[in-house]
Amino acid sequence: MSKRIPKRISQMAIAKELGYSQALVSMVLNGRKKGISEAAYKRIWDFAITNGYSPRGMNIESVRG
Fold this sequence. Notes:
Layout: H1 11-18, H2 22-29, H3 38-50, H4 60-64
């Protein structure tokens, strides 16, 4: 039997779980801070990292700040 590779969490799943829009989650995960509360920014990133979010082709620390 082959091992199943766990599916990475999506921006939509993060948004739904936290009660934010997918657009806000996308902006945060792309490193945008302007116009976004520090609490929302931190909450989204903490949830994303805890649940295995991995941005394709990006270093998390360079975006997370």
